[in-house]
Amino acid sequence: MKLSTRTYRGAAAAILAGGMLLTAGCGTGGQADRSSHSGEQRANDGSKPAPVPIAPDGGGGAPAEGVDGGSEGQRKDDALEDSRPAADYLSTFALDVDTASYGYARRTLADGQRPQPGDIRPEEFVNSFRQDYPRPKGDGFSVTVDGARPRGAEGEVDGEDWSLVRVGLSTRPSDRAGERPPAALTFVIDISGSMAEPGRLDLVQESLGILTDKLRDDDSIAVVTFSDEAETRLPMTRLKGSRERIHSVIDSLEPTDSTNVEAGVRTGYDEAVEGRRRGATNRVVLLSDALANTGETDADAILDRIDDARREYGITLFGVGVGSEYGDELMERLADKGDGHTTYVSTSQQARKVFVDQLPTHVELRARDAKAQVAFDPKTVKQFRLIGYENRAVADEDFRNDRVDGGEVGPGHTVTALYAVRLREGASGHVATATVRWLDPRTRAPHEQTGSVETDAIDGALWDGASKRLQVTAVAAYFAESLRGGSMPGAPGLGELAERAGTLAKSTEDGAVRQLAEAIRQAQRLRD
């Protein structure tokens, strides 16, 4: 439950505005290296969880203490041996609600294979599900902080002093689609040979064809294709009076040769810059399996082009992944550097949800360069760990540095961060205060909103009395940690986790939770 909130307004910050959100927004990259988090939440390759930041004890810095619980097949007594003393009780990260990691993991499991640990990002599992946070009345965020103890779960750690603390951020939905600014969208479409596989180029064409009929007359579209080379098929064109022409371009696309992602991105941004519209939301949408094999294949070299256009023109990137083989790491890095986000689609239903149900109403932004910082109270908290967000870490001192990139968030979206928190013995009172800071997309003025939580608000039993949506969040996080070989306090085995997901699917009547339960069962069958 949210126990307190307050809003701050500050002076304008000089950064570029623009960008849009389709399903959820995030942008990272920028001048600061987010792996240099002073709280030791350092980025890693995703193959293991980040070390638990250990709070200093008595001001001197306590020895590292590991988490000795875990799910089936996970480390238990020797978990998280690389934990190090933390410099403080702060946790700072850029907002992110990418969902590609979860979508691709589901596809991989359905194909009878176990995902690679490095492809698992727990925050993208958590942020794939609907939440129950209150919506703010204005254009900023609501901040909700709650939690529960995973007592009674198989593999519980150190008695009952561990809790899961959920930090939830939410924006107000759009009132009407017609109130948003016009959109100028440059679609960069992969037509390499690998896109001939069913569920790739054909799915892209179907989605864009429907989208062409759904966008407004004052929106604009450009189309760039790439294989071994890139080609502009359609310069930036207003929808009004041009829909038949746009349909013809989309329908004529055919797979050809190799995958030169660098050429596609470079040409796509050239076209987006050339066709950019003042007062509009300018965005590049990259649709690809991201399996670069021709031209420049190093992500950093490709990212340089995106970074220039982002800084100078405020053009953002949205990455849509397709295909049974998918370059998840490259796509995510491209979207991060381009102040955007990624998702993954493998069915017509998923593509329709992204391009048809969500895009027309989610073009505008609610917040730009948004960051969150959670301050834990050393009087009550002994240890804490942020689940996921390793490659979104921001140096604590850069939280209010508006030159350091954050995430882009649109209307009606939620961002969730889940922490494992160990309280001191007998502790009571204040646990943590969460603050979100963002820039107004139009005025670029900074704003902040806070929420705090006390010990009595995280003392309930997770599986018995906590909200259903908090339970779904916990199941998604436990599942992600299991897939990447990590551990969390109180983690159930996959069998119990699947049962809990199935029960939640019935009580919430949520099809997405039913799909989660099936994915967990598939992972269990593969393990067995």
List the topology elements.
Layout: E1 7-9, E2 53-54, E3 84-85, E4 90-94, H1 100-110, H2 122-126, E5 141-148, E6 162-171, E7 183-190, H3 201-214, E8 220-226, E9 230-238, H4 243-251, H5 261-274, E10 281-288, H6 299-313, E11 316-321, H7 328-337, E12 341-344, H8 348-358, E13 367-376, E14 381-386, E15 407-409, E16 414-423, E17 430-439, E18 446-454, H9 468-483, H10 494-508, H11 511-527
Parallel strand pairs: 2-3, 7-8, 7-10, 10-11, 11-12
Antiparallel strand pairs: 1-18, 4-13, 5-6, 6-16, 8-9, 13-15, 13-17, 14-16, 17-18
Task: Tell me what you see in this structure.
With about 525 residues, this protein is of the alpha/beta class. It contains eleven helices and 18 strands. The strands form four sheets. Strands 1, 4, 13, 15, 17 and 18 form a six-stranded antiparallel sheet that branches. β11, α7 and β12 form a beta-alpha-beta unit. α9 runs parallel beside α11. The longest helix has 17 residues. It is globular, with a radius of gyration of 22 Å. It starts with 6 loop residues before the first strand and ends with a helix. The N terminus is likely disordered.
